[in-house]
Amino acid sequence: MEMTTMLAARKGVTMNITPDTIVAEVATTEPATIRVFQQHHIDFCCGGQISLADACARHGINANTFVADLHAATVTAGETSDWNDTTLTDLIAHIQHRYHVPLRTELPRLSAMLTKVVNRHGARLPDTLLPLQATFERFQHDLIDHMRKEDRVLFPAVMALEATRDAHTGGLERSTWIDQPIHVMEAEHEAAGAALATLR
Questions:
Q1: Neighbour-count burial of 70, counting CB atoms closer than 10 A to its CB (0-12 exposed, 13-18 middle, 19+ buried)
Q2: What percent of the chain has pLDDT over 70?
Q3: What is d(CA 28, CA 5) in angstroms, rounded to the nearest whole number?
Q4: Domain coverage including residue 67
């Protein structure tokens, strides 16, 4: 990877993608583009040391259109809502729609990608890839279980409390029983953060 590309990745600068850019460099620098490569069955790993133009030519894809799709994938809509002024019910709906729903699709997709890499390169890099796979699979299992508990227990309880909002103070009626599931969720968040640190 060129030094300018590496610096851009470290500084969070969006990569300047052109038809001459190498496929693997795009996928490495802008992971959000991986889904686009997969949709068009373009190898961005071992066979990714070719230009986007060459890859598009091999797959009968218009290079300029494909580059535009890659750029679009790198654009993340900014958060415009002030969550301090919204209801807890709306915040919960946002969390579920923005994070829970996509994660239930993305985690299995990433697991399949990792399995493919391990099957191909695991024998050559067992000390790296096998622990990585084990950590990810444990992370995936724990995160899915965590989201299930939030969706089925914590979030409904929070919404029920909000529904009983005190009309005079605008506050939520105190219910100490909810402290325990909140503490459990917080502990699981910390555990997930530790797992992510290991994966990185």
A1: buried
A2: 82
A3: 10
A4: 3-74
The number of folded domains in the chain is 2
Q: Is the pTM higher than 0.90?
A: no
Residue 80 lies in a domain: no
pLDDT band of residue 8 (cuts 50, 70, 90) is very low
Regarding whether 158 and 184 lie in a shared domain, the answer is yes
On whether both 62 and 116 belong to a single domain, the answer is no
CA distance 25 to 30: 8
